[in-house]
Design a protein that fits this description.
The chain is an alpha+beta fold. The chain has 2 domains: 79 residues, 3-Layer(bba) Sandwich (FAD/NAD(P)-binding domain), CATH 3.50.50.60; 89 residues, no CATH class. It contains 3 helices and 5 strands. Helix 1 runs parallel beside helix 2.
Length: 192
């Protein structure tokens, strides 16, 4: 699944290993998302078929038996197909799709990925690795600037951020307690 250079490179490589390679592409063509040399290599490969305007609508199988099939739909016609497939690779791109956060003050790098941790200047002290610098907003996975851009890394970051959220909440509770104590002291001083 995918229509960019990574998907094209994978398809060309897999075509030397597999009997058949099907590229499912959501867009209408490869020309806007893939280099010409890859498009030409794919076209020259007799065992690669490209299905444009196509999206996955179902993965078939069980936890015990693994992937057994894939169902997809042509976005233009609505026609669905189901095929026995045991291997599925997902290459959906490297665009962060986080530009909507810029208006919220979340810091983005020059490519639109979310900056976190030490990559963010903060007047509040040292930020946790997944903190964005905007109170209560954390970022993990591919959308984070400097991330490895791999599923396993995103899963690890998702697990790691839980501990960081607990730290954030305990800091916030400590700050609230300190603020309450300071206000009580000011109030007592005014009463005296």
């Amino acid at each position: 699944m995918g229509g960019g250079n990574s998907a094209g490179q994978a398809a060309v490589f897999l075509s030397s290993q597999a009997r058949e390679v099907r590229m499912l592409v959501r867009g209408p063509t490869l020309s806007k998302t893939m280099s010409r040399y890859l498009i030409d290599r794919i076209a020259a490969s007799s065992n690669i078929s490209v299905l444009c305007e196509t999206e996955i609508v179902g993965l078939l199988g069980t936890a015990d038996q693994g992937l057994q099939g894939v169902r997809w739909r042509n976005r233009r016609t609505g026609t669905e197909e189901e095929h026995a497939i045991a291997h599925f690779f997902l290459f959906t791109g490297a665009d962060p799709a986080a530009s909507w956060l810029a208006g919220c003050g979340v810091p983005l790098d020059d490519k639109g990925f979310i900056r976190t941790g030490a990559d963010v200047a903060s007047t509040e002290g040292v930020l946790l690795p997944m903190e964005t610098g905007v109170e209560g907003i954390f970022a993990v996975g591919d959308v984070r600037s400097g991330s490895v851009k791999r599923v396993g890394a995103a899963i690890g970051e998702g697990a790691a951020v839980v501990a960081q959220l607990h730290t954030f909440l305990s800091r916030r509770g400590s700050m609230a307690d300190s603020a309450r104590r300071a206000e009580a002291a000011r109030s007592a001083a005014r009463s005296a």
